[in-house]
Amino acid sequence: MRVALLTAFVIAALSGCNEPSTLATDTPPAGRGPDPVATTLVADDGEAAKVFEQRIAPIFKSPDPSSCARCHLATVDIKQYILPSAKDTFLALRDQGLIDLDKPENSKILALINRGADDPKAAGLISAKRQKSEYEAFAAWIKACAADPALRNAAKPEKAPTLATKPVEVVRHARKDRMLESFEANVWSMRFRCMNCHTEGTPQNDKLVKEHGARVAWFKKGGPEATMDFLIASKLIDIDTPEKSLLLTKPLNEVKHGGGVKIVVGDQGYKAFRAWIEDVAAIKTGKYAKPADLPPNGTGPKQFGTEAWFKLEKTPDAWGDKLLQADVYAWDAKANSWERDPIATSDRIVFGKGKLWQHTVTLLAVPGSDRAKAWAKGKPSLPAGKYLVKVYVDSTGKVKKDWKVPLGAEEYVGQVEFQGRWLEGYGSMTVVDASKVKK
Ligand code: HEC
Ligand code: HEC
Q1: With contact defined as beta carbons under 8 Å apart, do 319 and 413 qualify?
Q2: Which residue minimizes the CA distance to atom 17 of ligand 1?
Q3: Cβ of residue 116 lying under 6 Å from some atom of ligand 1
């Protein structure tokens, strides 16, 4: 039964290439009958053109983002599938296989528009209403086109009209679910660097909100997705000059910041925030035209923020006021050696006068590993035990000159073994004597 149907469909589809198919012309075009669109029609003026003018053109001209924006950042908009001329739009969609003339309701463009329409999460969203009207407009128009032999059989023009759509790699990169992954890994995992000053619903933040207003509550209670949505739409990101975004200039204290200096150019926090902001800006300003324009795929470890503080005391004078990075390695009892990759890391400027360095640590795990899965599910933490710290000091200030470069062998100043308890909170730091750090 299914096979027979399928065969019939394939034959119809094949024959549809050359001659009008009976399948589609059997169905009256949308809008006939009580629809006001139909009553104003002059039969051979082309109903499809009318439907286009009345229902598709307004979508094209609308200044509002289309329903696609719910799941795709700026790289995808239904307007990219529309051209000023009805005929060009038809030819472009038809020749890219986005319209099914024999089964208009199966058209690929309709599937793209309708994705997620029945997701309960969409209920009540403005974009859901927009999605429905976009869907209905295209469904009606495609049906009218399919019923118009002149359009169906229009020859492929020599200079085919082209759509403003982006390559699939670019579309995929800017999908919100993908963006969210990168946001969680980069920005969300760095939130403890901002302590709880900006985390909505914490006592610290409640206090600051009373003094400075809701604007300081930008790490949203709703979690990473709510925070990302908020930040992307906020004035904290400057898409034309990303490095001037308040999300960077405030914690740098380049713009006077109530929290003081919380990051420096080129440190892990800066790198993470800056890379994410640059990506959002490039997407929103349409800078990604081809796959080669995309930033390299994140192949590094997954990062998890914690409130466990790590402290190096008695830091040598030579390290004073320099950026110091501490990479922590766990002991692998089975292999009787240190693990190959660091399990935690952090960096910050050494407090020269106080001869100390301290910061919250970010945990690292290979994507897809048991460790990464456990930390994603529960609260990320390190067990008490034997650890090794490798210390890097940027004495030439190289990351200030180029925020993208990592610290490496040139900055290595030594290592030391220690016992880590890794309790949470400023009052329960894991402390190491930095004078014991040796090459
Ligand atoms: C509810 C979320 C959602 C909405 C709304 C949505 N998309 Fe998508 N879109 C996705 C997902 C998820 C994928 C990847 C699907 C897959 O991999 O099978 C995707 C893939 C695509 C692709 C193919 C790229 C690829 O991965 O091969 C295009 C083109 C596209 N969408 C265009 C649109 C357009 C145009 C709109 C608006 C009319 C839209 N989408 C609305 C979620 C959505
Ligand atoms: C000790 C508390 C504290 C810490 C830690 C802190 N901030 Fe702030 N931040 C404030 C206060 C208070 C304000 C409001 C006054 C102002 O605008 O400077 C503020 C304002 C901001 C603003 C401006 C918000 C707006 O909408 O105007 C940004 C952006 C910001 N901080 C980013 C950060 C980042 C990023 C971090 C962490 C890397 C951070 N802050 C760490 C206290 C803090």
Answers
A1: yes
A2: 172
A3: yes
Q: Is there a single domain that holds both residue 111 and residue 255?
A: no
- Same domain flag for 420 and 327: yes
> Which residue minimizes the CA distance to atom 32 of ligand 1?
112
> Domain holding 325: CATH number?
2.60.40
Instruction: Choose the final residue of a domain: 276, 293, 310.
Output: 293
Q: Are residues 340 and 397 in the same domain?
A: yes
CB of 322 within 6 A of ligand 2: the answer is no
Q: Are 134 and 278 members of one domain? A: no
Range of 253's domain?
Answer: 172-293
Indicate the top mutation candidate among 66, 70, 71, 96 to test ligand 1's pocket, ranked by most ligand atoms within 8 A of CB.
71
Cβ neighbours around 252 below 10 Å, total: 19
- Decide: 170 in ligand 1 pocket, CB within 6 A: no
Task: Show the DSSP H helices in 213-302 as ranges.
Answer: 224-233, 246-249, 268-284
pLDDT in tens, 133-186: 999 999 999 999 999 999 999 999 888 888 989 999 999 999 999 999 889 988
The rounded Cα 352 to chain-centroid distance in angstroms is 38
115 Cα to the center of ligand 1, angstroms: 7
- The whole-chain average pLDDT of the chain stands at 88
Same-domain pairing of 240 and 153: no
Q: Is the CB of 349 under 6 A from ligand 1?
A: no
Closest ligand 1 atom to residue 117 Cα is 1
Distance 403 CA to ligand 2 centre (A): 21
Rounded CA-CA distance 361/342 in Å is: 12
pTM of the complete model: 0.84
- Convert the pLDDT of each residue in 326-375 to its tens digit: 999 999 999 999 999 999 999 999 999 999 999 999 999 999 999 999 99
Phi-psi region of 9 (alpha: psi -120 to 50; beta: other; left: phi over 0): alpha
Phi first, then psi, for residue 315 (nearest 5°) are -70, 140
